[in-house]
Amino acid sequence: MIILYGSKPSFGLPETSPYVTKTEVQLLMAGLPYEKRAAIPPDAPKGQIPFIDDDGTVVADSTFIREWLETKYGIDLDEGLNVAERAQAWVIERMIENQLGWVSAWGRFMIPENFEKGPARWFDFLPDDEAAARREQMHAVTAANLRAVGIGRHAPNEITWLGARSIAALSTLLGGKRHLMADHPTGVDAIAFAVLAGILTPFFDTPLRDLTLGYPNLVAYVSRMMARYYPQHPWEMPLSVAA
């Protein structure tokens, strides 16, 4: 049995971490049975979630988890794609994970109102002094990570501009299709859905969310994916953009 270690529903999403969502959706795409358990990054082999335990073999990081699943179980999440399309899917995935995902994280952690009502609440179960120290530490670590990858070195309007370029690119690539690469969902749709849902959730108020709502095809795409893979999760977008 595959055990998926992740977070929990929060922020108006079925899963807090987009990278856990990516792996969970890929497990669902593959039709592989799994059990989901809660974990925190310090408990993870690489200090981040997700990771899996597959009958005693522990694999960390969503990209390496996919590689493990496809190799062990003989599945192909890009079935039907040719060599050029597979290359394009990889480039799209890297743009989402290495740029857009960090812009989304900046909106959660570095906009004070979002941090206070979101990630800061993770430590409410602790005594006040300890909770305050943990919040401060998490905020500092996230700020350092954002600076290390480059996003945190820019002004807020510049960060939003960078994210907007990626959102526009995704909208153009999706066009009028139901999925990014084929008539059916492929591997890259898992991370595209996860990060876009994290941007569109009404829980967080960000300039990038406002911009993304202006792309009806992306809003409808997230709604379709949510209905397909998390049918029990309540998800409503404004009718004017979700149609």
Automatic annotation (TrEMBL):
GO MF annotations in UniProt: transferase activity
The protein's name:
Glutathione S-transferase family protein
Q: Where is the Metaxin glutathione S-transferase domain?
A: 165-225
Q: Does the keyword Oxidoreductase apply?
A: no
Q: Where is the Thioredoxin-like fold domain?
A: 18-114
Matching PANTHER family, A to Z? FAILED AXON CONNECTIONS-RELATED (PTHR12289:SF41), METAXIN RELATED (PTHR12289)
Q: Which SUPFAM superfamilies match?
A: GST C-terminal domain-like, Thioredoxin-like
Q: Name one Pfam family in it.
A: GST_N_4
Q: Which UniProt keywords apply?
A: Transferase
